[in-house]
C-alpha cells in the first residue's frame, strides 16, 4: 500500500500559498514540497499541525493507493 498526498488540494481549498503554509508550519518550502510530491512524509506531530492549519483531518492529507 502506498499513500498519495492530497496536501496540495487541501492548500488550494484553504486559499493559501505554499510559501505561507511552509512559513506557518516553520518548515522550508523544500520540505513542504517533498511532502506534497510524496518524497517524504510529515511527522505525526506535523501532520496534525498541518491539518489544523488547513482546517481538515489528517486523513484528508493522504489517500491510499492499493496498487
- pLDDT below 50 for ≥5 consecutive residues: which ranges? none
Q: In the CATH classification, which architecture applies?
A: Orthogonal Bundle
Question: How much beta, percentage-wise?
Answer: 5-15%
CA-atom Rg in angstroms: 11 Å
Q: CATH-wise, what's the superfamily? A: lambda repressor-like DNA-binding domains
First-last Cα distance? 7 Å
CATH top level class name? Mainly Alpha
| Helix vs. strand class | mainly alpha
SSE order, one letter for each helix or strand: EHHHHHE
C-alpha geometry: globular
Largest sheet: 2 strands, antiparallel
Tally of domains: 1
Question: How much helix is in the residues?
Answer: 55-70%
- Global mean pLDDT: 95
Strands, total number: 2
Strand order of the largest sheet: 1-2
Helix count from the secondary structure assignment: 5
Could you please say which CATH topology applies here?
A: 434 Repressor (Amino-terminal Domain)
Provide a descriptive summary of the structure in words.
The chain has 67 residues and is mostly helical. It has a single domain, classed as 434 Repressor (Amino-terminal Domain). It is 58% helix and 12% strand. The protein has a two-stranded antiparallel ribbon. The longest helix is centred in the last third of the chain and has 10 residues, at 44-53. The mean pLDDT is 95.
Describe the secondary structure blueprint for this structure.
Blueprint: E1 2-5, H1 7-14, H2 18-25, H3 29-37, H4 44-53, H5 58-61, E2 62-65
Antiparallel strand pairs: 1-2
Helix pairs in contact: 2-3
Amino acid at each position: 500500500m502506498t499513500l498519495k498526498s492530497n496536501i496540495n488540494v487541501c492548500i488550494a481549498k484553504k486559499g493559501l500559498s505554499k510559501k505561507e503554509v511552509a512559513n506557518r508550519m516553520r518548515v522550508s518550502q523544500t520540505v513542504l514540497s517533498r511532502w506534497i510530491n510524496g518524497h517524504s512524509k510529515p511527522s505525526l506531530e506535523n501532520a496534525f499541525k498541518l491539518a489544523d492549519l488547513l482546517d481538515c483531518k489528517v486523513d484528508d492529507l493522504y489517500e491510499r493507493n492499493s496498487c
